[in-house]
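Subject: design request, 123 residues
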């Protein structure tokens, strides 16, 4: 395999985004429990394509440090969207140890609130 073919065979690097969620209300708005394995809404004006692989650096509430979470774009709110929802995308968490740990942590933080009828950033 020549150098050009090797370069083309390497998978593209995922886009990297940061998300800091500072309150339970913001976490409720961003959490997407209906997506298999869970998902998070990432406010962004950058174009996102369904199925695109992304890396998200997440800070939850007052926890120290950022958690790197991989996933794929599963939802897109366009910049000119309706219903006063912010532009951005929903990321389905990868079925990985980090993804499962984040889902468990969010489910714990939002216990009871997930049955609410309050609107979120996506539904």
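Subject: RE: design request

Done. Sequence follows.
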């Amino acid at each position: 395999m020549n150098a050009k073919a090797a370069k083309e065979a390497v998978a593209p690097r995922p886009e990297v985004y940061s998300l800091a969620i500072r309150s339970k209300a913001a976490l409720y708005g961003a959490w997407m429990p209906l997506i298999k394995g869970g998902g998070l809404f990432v406010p962004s004006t950058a174009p996102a394509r369904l199925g695109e692989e992304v890396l998200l650096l997440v800070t939850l509430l007052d926890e120290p440090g950022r958690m790197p979470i991989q996933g794929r774009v599963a939802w897109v709110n366009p910049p000119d969207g309706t219903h006063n929802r912010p532009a951005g995308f929903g990321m389905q968490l990868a079925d990985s140890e980090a993804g499962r740990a984040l889902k468990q942590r969010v489910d714990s933080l939002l216990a009871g609130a997930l049955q609410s009828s309050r609107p979120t950033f996506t539904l």
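The longest helix spans residues 97-109.
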